[in-house]
Each structure stands twice: as structure tokens, then as C-alpha cells.
Amino acid sequence: MTIRLQDIELQAYHGVYPEEKRLGNTFLVNISLTLPDTRAVETDQLADTVNYQSVYDIVQREMAIPSDLLEHVAGRIRKAICQLVPQAVVKIQISKKNPPLGGKVAWATIEL
């Protein structure tokens, strides 16, 4: 089974340049959790699956901590989700809108 939270849009302050930490930017986060089928398939009970709210709360909390590198943020998010759901294989994408590269680039994305 796969659970995805797609295009979580947040304002955050990640980047190596001082203006990125001062002005912030728009980020999109995509999370994919692959895990064995949960009992919720049969029981229809939230306690028998992954609570999406808990995953979202992790993303929001970790994105609020300024970092130089998106790789570092993704690593923190993955570590926290794996502590919450140890049996999950976690895939994370973080995209930064209009990265300051000296030209027109819509998004810069890392995937972990």
C-alpha cells in the first residue's frame, strides 16, 4: 500500500544565501510512504493505519527550521516519519520555487 501527501505548499526560509533566509520562498513537499497493507483495509479504523495529520505535522515542523540545504531538511523529515512509522519506505521530494540561479528556473527539486 502507498500513502501520499502531494504538493504540500509551505512558506519557508531555506537556502545558502542570506536573502533566502530573510525573505523566504515557496516550497512544495511530496511524501510517499510505502508499507504493507494495514488492518484499516478491513476495520475502517484510523488507529489501524497511518494518520495523515501526523505526517503533515512532521513536514510542517521540520520545514519551519531554516536550513542551508534541502537535502538536510528532507533527511530530518524522513527520520521523523520513520520513527513514527518504522515499517514504511519513505520517499520525499522538496521543491523550491524560483531558485536564485541567475536565470529563469521554475523549481529546483531534490528527492530522497
Task: Give me some keywords for this one.
4-stranded antiparallel sheet, 31% strand, 4 strands, 112 residues, elongated, alpha+beta, 33% helix
Task: Give the topology, please.
Layout: E1 2-12, H1 18-23, E2 25-34, H2 40-43, H3 52-63, H4 70-84, E3 89-97, E4 107-111
Antiparallel strand pairs: 1-2, 2-3, 3-4
Task: Provide a concise account of the structure shown.
This protein is of the alpha+beta class and 112 residues long. Helix content is 33%, strand content 31%.
* Strand element count: 4
* Rg of Cα set: 15 Å
Q: What sequence of helices (H) and strands (E) makes up the elements?
A: EHEHHHEE
* Global outline: elongated
Distinct helical segment count:
4
Segments where pLDDT lies below 50 for 5+ residues? none
How does the major sheet shape up?
4 strands, antiparallel
Order of strands across the widest beta sheet? Answer: 1-2-3-4
In percent terms, what proportion of residues is strand? 25-35%
* Overall mean confidence score, pLDDT: 96
SSE-based structural type: alpha+beta
Give the distance, in angstroms, between the N- and C-terminal Cα atoms.
Answer: 19 Å
In helices, the fraction of residues equals 25-40%
